[in-house]
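Minimal example, chain plus zinc ion.
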Amino acid sequence: MRSEDARPVRLADYQPPAFLIDTVELGIDLDRHRTRVRSVLRVRANPERQAPAALELDGDELKLLSVKLDGRPLPADAHEATAQKLTILQPPAESFTLEIETELDPSANTKLMGLYRSGSAYCTQCEAEGFRRITYFPDRPDVMAVYTVTLTADRDDAPVLLANGNLQQKGEIPETNRHFAVWHDPHPKPSYLFAVVGGNLDRLSDSFTTMSGRKVELGIYVEPGKAGRATYAMDALKRSMVWDEKVFGREYDLDVFNIVAVSDFNMGAMENKGLNVFNDKYVLASPETATDADYAGIESVIAHEYFHNWTGNRITCRDWFQLCLKEGLTVFRDQEFSSDERSRPVKRIADVRTLRSHQFPEDSGPLAHPVRPDTYREINNFYTATIYEKGAEIIRMLKTLIGADLFAKGMDLYFDRHDGQATTIEAFIACFADVSKQDLSQFMLWYAQAGTPEVQVQTRYDAEAKTLHLDVAQKVPATPGQPTKKPMVVPLAFGLLDQDGRDLPIRLADDGWAENGVIVLDQEQKGFTCTGVSARPVLSVNRGFSAPIRLIADITEDDLFFLARHDSDFFNRWEALQKVTLRELVKSVDAIRAGETPATDPRLISAFASSLEDQSLEHAFAAQLLTLPSEVELTLEIGRDIDPDAVHAALLSLRQEIGAGIAAQALERYRSLQDSGPFVPGAASAGRRSLRAVLLGLLTASHGKEAAELAATHYRSATNMTDRISGLAALSRIPGTEREEVLKDFRARYRNDALVMDKWLSIQAAIPEEDALDRVKRLMKEPDFSLSNPNRVRALIGSFAGGNPTQFHRADGTGYQFLVRIIDELDAKNPQVAARLLTAFRSWRTLEAGRRARAEAALKQLAGGGNRSSDVADILTRTLG
Ligand code: 0A1
Ligand code: ZN
């Protein structure tokens, strides 16, 4: 669809579908260029709607071969067909059968939406609106049907034939070289969950017995020869199935559960009913090819897609405005799963880091939108950090507000009440309002109002009255289309520490004992008084990041250092050190811009030293404590008039100072953490490796000769990919021949493994040096790169635009010029990936004037050029708007 066609869709205009489809019988004859699709639909008018004059079916770039109604060809004057729409002009009043034949070319489908070829396989992607690229259909999530699919293909071209549901039949087609398979999915589903796969694939098989004793066959399909790399994914799948039974009481509901890994995929993975299709990055792992981060990513994406079986598939979304109904909830569920499987505080810190570096910038710029938007032009652009990650935060707040028991009851009620339906956020929240008997209407503002609330906390201690008074106030910033905001419901978990760092019992003047330690701010301003406080305590607030806010507290540096050592809430221990570090960094940036040398508070170096000394801490947690805030986080803290060079310089200088300040201890600890024995991907050993990698980063921050040697030795002595990448990443920041040699060595070792080469591309794209852009351009010409594969594009171009702030935001504007040129070219091939790259400009207005002008010029140049896809046009308009 081109930009001029894209009219905004509005939630307020929602109407139930005019026609319902009870059953869909699909016959798909797979062919690399001429795939034929025969679709038989059982159609009836929706009794909830007045019978409309015509039946309109969605299409996208479709070629219609024939259409029949109740077995008879439809005369030309009884229908209208374009590539985008099929209209049946006067459909019968009673139910009827529509038979539609279309033809498509999977090999020419570079958008990777609908049916396409990836490597040796045919596969599909139908969310959000891809089914209409396969056949004409009312392609909206509230039309749910029972599907039966007959696939045929050349036996050699596609020995494996898969679709949703259970396999009913398979066999040969006599006197041809073709074979067939019939799959039936008994669960009514929306078209976006439809999937078929055909190809030459290997299978890793296993099985799972559900809590009621049913046996489910599990299969993971991968490129030939790679089944050995799917064992971790299989293990994660079985653990997810157990967890969902135990924690949410959810059992799997088909006889088979299949996963297919493909190498060309626009996103991470897709939860098609009984047939998940995955970007192979989130399936394939071996100690030699995958890092600990890859293993953790596989575990969480496998869990996420599996959990969708209930939150998304059994209960789906009424319309795409409700996307967070399935996504926010499922992210919450996968986060909880990983917390239970690994370390809860470390997972929380990682999730908050993700939220702050992706969602917060989105929420404070031109692309800000509510978790449930009320209008969109291109739904593909709404698979955002706001809908996913902020959506998950809302669920977490709900649980904090009503308590774990009522939350579990509310979930049970939701599953009971809405099973088999396409529903809304209102219906979901009503379940929790019903079980808790609380009025959650104000809470709904979290779905409706965009922007990160700023919450100010001021404390007053009265020694005589033995009270601590908290003055809490909130402000929700203006966002596009929402100039004024109402106060939100903000649950703030908090604690008071005595001078020895112990938690004091909390008694609130009005509410009695605050046993769960949560105060709720639901007005613009509110006061809370804690009584019986015999000495001035230290306040720890927003513990566990109980609300996704920006907290502005009148807390001294001394108190932050104290919290960093003593807070019983590990999240806030980490948070305290981050906060004080950010304060220092902001001062450094000012100093650097004024031409002065930044001076770091020596207490900060000591705080890092004591984090390192504390042997009682989990390794992974210590690694988080010793990791400085990212450039994005520091940029956000400063807020305006950003000079990315100064931001980078401040961080580098602090890293060097810490590295020098703790060198002796760090080196000793670094050595003591060396892995012995075979690689295991579990949380404990991953934690050890991550602490060792963070220490390596600090020890090599000086970028001297010794640093290069240490990093190169780390690289060369590695026995697994995690250590190899830590060594390469550290060395990549140290210019010199050693670096170039190691880069060559890496390529020679892994050149046949595209997923590993992505790491090589992405590390080089992020080198913060003058010639980074030339290097990226050079790498684009290498056979390791291809503009047609989304993983390659993200690894090279995405890492440059999103992970190399000084070079993307070069003062001369050449970084911007480069990116818009790539987007211009990519837009014709794969608009979704092009639009995603364009979001690298989302914070352009916060830049200092020179860069701002250059970014604007580049964006305007893109807007003025050729025919833009609706995906790119939408992001462009909003970014410039
Ligand atoms: N529902 C998937 C995400 C997804 C969305 C769109 C896609 O194609 C454009 C693919 C996947 C999930 O949440 O995992
Ligand atoms: Zn999802």
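Residues 304, 308, 327, 330 surround zinc ion (ligand 2) (CB under 6 Å). The chain has a mean pLDDT of 97.
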